[in-house]
Amino acid sequence: MTFSPELEAKFAKLLTSYPPGRQRSAMIPMLLYAQDEVGSMTDELIEEVAKRVGVTPLQVNEVLSYYSMLHRKPMGKFHIQVCTNISCLLHDGDKLYEHACKKLGLGHKEVSADGQFSLEEVECMGACSWAPAVQVNYDFHHHVTPEELDQIIDGLRKKQ
User: What pTM was estimated for this model as a whole?
Assistant: First the structure.
């Protein structure tokens, strides 16, 4: 698989950042960087990362199945994740997710027709003290109200 020179440089740096025999520790950052460039986790990408870090494609797939930020299909330019785990649920995270569904006209892991937005209900973001939490791409938002979510989405629409 061919990656950009910039991504190849990141991969090379990652692989030398860990002690010999520990290159598998570079797997998650490599997957995130590759997903940003390629758009999703393809079989070819999985095989390439597995080869580079010295694991099997099955082991990479096990990681993919665990982490909600890694996707098998392309997500929108603005991928919105709403936590509905217990802490967020107790602070109306479920209602916030329903609000996002209505505002965007999308369901779980759906992508808008124009490819600008995708929505995902996630189990936990590790932000329990700041519930309810929302993540847009790599940006976290804490104590989000429906009105604040509307402002976030409207602001993203202006960036299109």
Answer: 0.84
